[in-house]
Amino acid sequence: MSPPILLAENLTKVYGTFPALKGLNLAIRPGEVVGLLGPNGSGKTTALRSFLGFLKPTAGRATLAGHDCWRDSVAARRKVAYLPGELRLYDSMTGRQLVQFLGKLRGDVPGPEVDVLARRLDIDPDRPLTTLSSGMKRKVALLTVLLPRVPLIILDEPTNTLDPTMRDELMEQLLLAKVAGKAVLFSSHVLQEVEAVCDRVIVLRKGELVHVQDMSELREGRHVAATFPGGSPATGPTGEALPADDAGRLDFDYHGPTPALLAWLARQPVENLRVEPLGLAGIYKKYHA
């Protein structure tokens, strides 16, 4: 197994008496896309800023490509491309100038790939940023994080102001980054985006990591909603007990091979059947109802 690109060990941040982050332990490896979920105040921003060396931990530590994110923050930040949720760009520049300027700071100036990605994102990299809409500026910012040859990409609400087509394109670009061996960590309130690209999802609540979800496991599950006119069956497709319902209505989650589920349903007198993939909504609501 590859060593982690990003490693948090008992990472803690306390403001006065308020614990914004409590003993976070996390490892993200090359070629892995990890989603960070939680409502406002859950500790997501504190965690991201700690990973980037913007905040000094109260206890514990975080390392990025072997560099301590606080003590060796300049070297650590050379290994990461970061897109903040709220953009602050140099409006006096064009998109191309911004990409080149940031590339020089890192010692990695991109070449023709700027135009290739700009076409994919449907933007003119030579237009002054001051003439661009918020959505177009967001796409320029994506150029600055998708182009650098770094092992880690961190994105905070990356699809803000993007139209649906560009949201799909960004998801495709994150999958390409994964194939290239990069690690991706991104925070989003849009659960469908997280479900589409993530290998793992971590859920924060009041500064604590409360759940880690393997997405391959979740994708194998199904939610079944059905009505049985003769009354609901007592056992499910794997022999598990099902709750009795005199009206014959059942809603349950199934984990197992799909053919076995379909075979079980075929033996039942079913009406109003709905079978759909399990999503993150139920898990999210469990911790943030």
Structural commentary:
The chain has 289 residues and is an alpha/beta fold. It folds into two domains: 6-206, Rossmann fold, CATH 3.40.50.300; 218-287, no CATH class. It contains ten helices and 13 strands. The protein has helices spanning 44-51, 73-77, 95-106, 113-120, 134-146, 164-179, 191-197, 215-220, 258-266, 281-287, and strands at 6-15, 18-28, 33-37, 59-64, 67-68, 80-83, 152-156, 183-187, 200-205, 208-214, 221-227, 249-255, 271-277. Strands 6-7-8-3-9-10 form a six-stranded mixed sheet, with helices on both faces. A four-stranded antiparallel sheet has the order 2-1-4-5. The protein is globular. The two termini are 36 Å apart. 31% of the residues are buried.
Question: Could you give a short description of this structure?
Answer:
This protein has 289 residues and is α/β, with parallel strands linked by helices. The chain has 10 helices and 13 strands. The protein has 2 domains: 6-206, P-loop containing nucleotide triphosphate hydrolases (Rossmann fold); 218-287, no CATH class.
Task: Record the strand order, biggest sheet.
Answer: 6-7-8-3-9-10
The total strand number stands at 13
Topology-level CATH name of the largest domain: Rossmann fold
- CATH-scheme architecture of the largest domain: 3-Layer(aba) Sandwich
Set down the secondary structure blueprint.
Elements: E1 6-15, E2 18-28, E3 33-37, H1 44-51, E4 59-64, E5 67-68, H2 73-77, E6 80-83, H3 95-106, H4 113-120, H5 134-146, E7 152-156, H6 164-179, E8 183-187, H7 191-197, E9 200-205, E10 208-214, H8 215-220, E11 221-227, E12 249-255, H9 258-266, E13 271-277, H10 281-287
Parallel strand pairs: 3-8, 3-9, 6-7, 7-8
Antiparallel strand pairs: 1-2, 1-4, 4-5, 9-10, 11-12, 11-13
Helix pairs in contact: 3-5
